[in-house]
Amino acid sequence: xxxxxxIAISILMWSTGRQMGSSIFGGMDYPDIHKIQxxxxxxxxxxxxxxxxxxxxxxxxxxxxNDDPLMAADYLYSALAYLRDIGLMIPGGDSGxxxxxxxxxxxxxxxxxxxxxIKSAHKGVRFNPFYxxxxxIDISEYA
Length: 143
What we know:
This protein has about 140 residues and is mainly α.
């Protein structure tokens, strides 16, 4: 009986951890977003609260892409605003980090909007992208 309980708890912990891990940093459904978020995580120590605000809004975005792409876009734009604000928290202003975070925000915005646009098209919902609209997209950004 104890062995059965241990096995059941192990399976529950493994499946719960797997689901939780898929929601952290973009999930495995979106490996391109996951890759950028891992790069952004390096800057999380600059301002922990703003990073957590960015992360929370980005997780909400990722959780809404399939169900409500327009709401996902709203969360995306809030997340990217927090991301850009992280770079502004560096004292002295002599760093190149704000430019790095701004470029990462642009790249994350383009890639995430691409996924939102695909889901919007499947649902028949009109989506007006901000980052993909009237901008030249360099294919090397996605390689």
